[in-house]
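Here is an idea for our session: we take a single protein and study its fold together. To get us started, please write out a protein record for me. Once you have written the record down, we can walk along the chain together.
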Amino acid sequence: YVPGALDEINYILRDFRQNEIKPIDRNLRDLLVRIRQRLGTEAPFQVISGYRSAKTNAMLHAHSEGVARHSLHIDGRAIDIRVPDRSLINLKRTAVSLFGGGVGYYPKSDFVHVDTGRIRYW
């Protein structure tokens, strides 16, 4: 790992609402690399949500049934993504096939949630 690059990743995936940075779980970063390799794409991930502060998560939880009270986003262990040159269902299937943690499929919102928690799917 390149320390300066890790700092850049943490900054990019910060809670933009609170401008708060938290280190992103190494396993999550590694899982994203494996997803990209398995998809066979060089397209950048489009990030919907990376790290979330407790304050941001509580606000989102109050306004959406799809946001967990204690989301792994708070711990820097979850990310919501899409890949522009791959279908959402292909992204979901790829993430599931890697057994890296939880995978949530949100076709109406056009993203897939990936985390490094226990293996589960929704």
Remarks:
- Residues 26-39 form the longest helix (14 residues).
